[in-house]
Design brief:
492 residues; alpha/beta; six-stranded parallel sheet; four-stranded mixed sheet; 17 helices; 17% strand; globular
Length: 492
Amino acid sequence: MAPIAKVGGLGDVVTGLARACLLRGHTVDIMLPFYECIQKQQISDLALITVYNSYHDGNWIPTNAHRGVVSGIPVIFIEPSNEFFKGQHVYGGSYNELEAYLFFSRACLEWMQVSGIQPDIIHVHEWQTGALPLLFWDMYQYLSLKKPRVILTIHNMEHYGECRQEQLSKCGLDGSVYATIDKALDDRTIGHNPERLSLLKGGIVYSNAVVTVSPTYLKETLCSRWLASTLIAHRDKYFGILNGIDTAMWNPATDVFLPAKFSGQNIEGKKLCKHYVQRGLGLASEGIISGNNVPDTMLKVPLVVCISRLVPQKGLHLITHAIKYIEELGGQMIVLGKASDSRFEGEFKHLAELHNHGPSIRILLMYSEELSHMLYAAADMVLVPSIYEPCGLSQLIGMRYGAIPVVRKTGGLADTVFDMDDQSNCEIANGFIFEGVDEGSLNWALDRAFAYYRDKPDEWNSTVQKVIEIDNSWNKTAGEYIKIYDSIRVRS
């Protein structure tokens, strides 16, 4: 959950969707593990509300439930007395992560039972809470939780939640019961010793509705990968809904991180943001800003920004190629992101040493919320060359800040970016698209974007104004989720 336990886009989704549902008059609580690394100063009114026991591996573990408010949203924090969720990061603690999330899934249901709370909907995300639908339908529904129905959102199908039968048994279910093709057996391991389960597959089978984060990603997941057969079997309850962005958090007209504010009606402040970033990172000649006058020479240089986790999914070979090619085209590029794999980190460190003292490239191997806001505001273009991208938030945030997207046509990128050179899509054209995973395809998109920027400044500026005004908010998207909630809830 952004901002207190944010690793990627999922954190933004949880906060944005919850806030949009609250604004529509629904009652919402978010349930989170009380990760040791959570910034407690960002939680208001934090208080212990329940002390209870929840089952794990033959023992009942004393567990605390705390309540607090984060970004105006009520949150219940589950804190077991064992070592689960300890450590300096949300993921990758010293405990067994799989067992910790199995514990958490049951502890949430156990808390509902001891508190006597019966929500209409329990909305779970990713493999980490994939066991909750199994626990609900095969255990808690027979106890006292009669009312809830369960919806699962899959943000990234690449993470399956591999689980041995005996590990699932630790949460109190009989793991062997789920080792069948129609339940949770991981099809890739058939005939292996041991055959394994997939918590994501189990979640798909047992949930009342399953959502993924864009219509195109839904189509892609029905056509490829081993989970396709499970998704096809459950096609009637499988939906593709685009993520939104939190337009209160991402708003160039009110953004506290920006040196100058701007909007679709008045984009002058964007020039100041660009010059501020160029000066701050040593990419600009030392012009003096007097009043609102910015030296024109540097503003004429297209600035491309890529804000991304540096993992293979994001098209790392295309990002490294873009660094070189944008320099050749006479543009500037800023990459902001972290690599979790030491090989990729080493490669980007080398690129940073090579380029960071020159006049056109900056590679910043870090994550900074403040800097990401400033970079989106400064960018002429935002590059998202993903190999696959379930939804993608970078292109949506980029547009909100007047950065024209250059993207690979996949998943949610295909649902939100429409090519400027496609005559059939003139009304909605808002960026530049390429389809291949090769360098030549990316070059073609960048060539066209740079030519447009340099040769058609008036059309470019009107496109900048247009993309700022596009409604990619949760307000639009939350309505789609609420329709599904309504369709599956029990009507008294």
